[in-house]
Please model this.
Amino acid sequence: MKDLTVYKTIEITGTSASSIEEALNQGIKRANRSVKNMSWFQLIETRGNIVKGKVHHWQVTMKIGFALVDADEK
Amino acid sequence: MKDLTVYKTIEITGTSASSIEEALNQGIKRANRSVKNMSWFQLIETRGNIVKGKVHHWQVTMKIGFALVDADEK
Amino acid sequence: MKDLTVYKTIEITGTSASSIEEALNQGIKRANRSVKNMSWFQLIETRGNIVKGKVHHWQVTMKIGFALVDADEK
Amino acid sequence: MKDLTVYKTIEITGTSASSIEEALNQGIKRANRSVKNMSWFQLIETRGNIVKGKVHHWQVTMKIGFALVDADEK
Amino acid sequence: MKDLTVYKTIEITGTSASSIEEALNQGIKRANRSVKNMSWFQLIETRGNIVKGKVHHWQVTMKIGFALVDADEK
Amino acid sequence: MKDLTVYKTIEITGTSASSIEEALNQGIKRANRSVKNMSWFQLIETRGNIVKGKVHHWQVTMKIGFALVDADEK
Amino acid sequence: MKDLTVYKTIEITGTSASSIEEALNQGIKRANRSVKNMSWFQLIETRGNIVKGKVHHWQVTMKIGFALVDADEK
Amino acid sequence: MKDLTVYKTIEITGTSASSIEEALNQGIKRANRSVKNMSWFQLIETRGNIVKGKVHHWQVTMKIGFALVDADEK
Amino acid sequence: MKDLTVYKTIEITGTSASSIEEALNQGIKRANRSVKNMSWFQLIETRGNIVKGKVHHWQVTMKIGFALVDADEK
Amino acid sequence: MKDLTVYKTIEITGTSASSIEEALNQGIKRANRSVKNMSWFQLIETRGNIVKGKVHHWQVTMKIGFALVDADEK
Amino acid sequence: MKDLTVYKTIEITGTSASSIEEALNQGIKRANRSVKNMSWFQLIETRGNIVKGKVHHWQVTMKIGFALVDADEK
Amino acid sequence: MKDLTVYKTIEITGTSASSIEEALNQGIKRANRSVKNMSWFQLIETRGNIVKGKVHHWQVTMKIGFALVDADEK
Model:
């Protein structure tokens, strides 16, 4: 029954050389390989490293919520 | 007199399928239909929903400040 | 088109002599008289006053989000 | 019945060339033109602009709570 | 030796149509199916959705701490 | 003169096996044995312990404000 | 030995009809009647009540730190 | 009955010339002279003063929780 | 071109025996001796020391933003 | 390709009878038994329990970030 | 020796008419003219001004960390 | 006159392979080479990197306050 759905939240950091959106998409894409039923995300922090005076990578940390459906919510 | 201007802040959430900037622009565009004299914004939160392992919509919540000019600041 | 829905958030404080849930419900019930399309709430703060050593009223402050649909989102 | 009063909170920024108190009073004075039953305020942020090395204006952002009494709480 | 116990914290969201306590209990009940040795919880956020002007579901997010005992703390 | 009343705030944690409200009431009831003139409370944190996969106790931390009336406000 | 001084912090709210500074001074003046060796303060929150569209009282909450010197640090 | 224990939290700052741990221990040692039944602590802030380019004292502020047992919880 | 102006923020603490405003003005006045193009400030924290039961000094910490114009923005 | 590495963050609490550093090291040592590629940590909270007026255990909560490399990032 | 590197953090606000990423890049580009060895950034705040109902400029505030290498870290 | 002293705060990150205290001392020692009159510090964040399952370096970020005495406070 959907009304009693329980969700778990995990925290993931995606990286990209070009944009915040791409870094976040990378994180979700990778999480999708092992977490099913992802439902929402929340951007938590945007950091990055600088090489030779320019942004080298964007590092975007997000929380991802997904429904726990069977016995494997760990 | 501009020096004594009073501002009101409202909180709006705009949505977009493609980027944070577009979601924020959507929110401001819609607010512009009924709020005049908008002066600044502040991005408060970036969330979104995920469908089939991909970002479906970006939901960007912003505060918008605007000058109260006549009697209708509510 | 639902995808481009814009939401507004307002902040309401409901009161109750008995519980947090009832105070929140009171706030939403009252907001419903003038705000349509309410979609979600977030509990922000729980305070209250004390009279003769006992809780007299619970004061629950919540944010309420609702979709802006026509020209009257102010 | 007073016990079930519902309050709404708005966020206002008042300005003054001389003090934090005056900026806050300006904000409340202006809000009073269209919001009735104001009950409390909370100072949220104190900013200002600087011109020629001196404070030009204080900008004081406050939350204002007021009782919703009839059908017009928007 | 109990003195050197290491704990892991996970973040869960439980839902209920009636109360904050029930939503939290739902989250813990579900987590108990795959996490053993749960020791404490902390309520992080209380949100919910609104349907037809009334609270439809309470969504309570909690942190849950549990002792890592064997090799499966992931 | 009531206008110049000074208040002190203390932080108390009440416990209950059944609900947040009862845990808070327990804290206020106990504080009432030695603190007079309690005026307001603010819920600060809701935690609890878990035994055998179920909530054993709710631990609700609150701030309590009370008026200082004589010489014994310590 | 001064190097090992231990301090206690208490939280006090002072009120004033005219300014933030006076409200804070009221709080410290009152605390001085029962707490000795006060050393520093930190302004925590500025609130107030509104009567007939004007600030009626400023309520300034502060933390006050004082050295514990003998056996009476309660 | 232990289940209904009520706790009070106080805020103490301990000092030490050598380490964070020692400063915290100093604070607890001093508090122990007048507060009984101390149960837990939480480190809140680590500050210190600098003399001649070196740390002179560590100042560690902690919250300490203790059970209220008789009539003297003030 | 004004559109691409870059600003730097510094953090300053001003002191005064009489008011928050004067302490902040002192900080800005002193900063003006070596920083040009100051544009805005934000009040961050208000603390102070207490001597003989009275406020001795107000210590107001502010952020100050100023435009970087030539090669000396360090 | 290192540029597109995705990281996951978990939250662990380590304990020690002697120091913050040892408690943190305990947490990382235990996590290392099941999580590979740990890259960084962030200290989140330092708490502890008190027995007979002395610190009995330090409880240090940390976030640990590690690279997701194969299919097992859960 | 790299192990003992000390870093300094500065706070910069970059502006752009088009995107968050460009505003941040502008800030880093400008900082690079006088600060060497920049190593990382953290996005702190995203604000902007609105002209005629549209975003005129994005103002992105970031912290930038850089290694102190010689005698000129001021 | 000491009463009107103005302070500036900078943010520094020190590193150490062994302890939080040493990392902080390293940061202050390095800052002392170019900043005079340092007066206080506040620990802001404790992070670190992990190599082969063990803490490799502690990275302690602190704020340092120092008095501005002549014309060189930048």
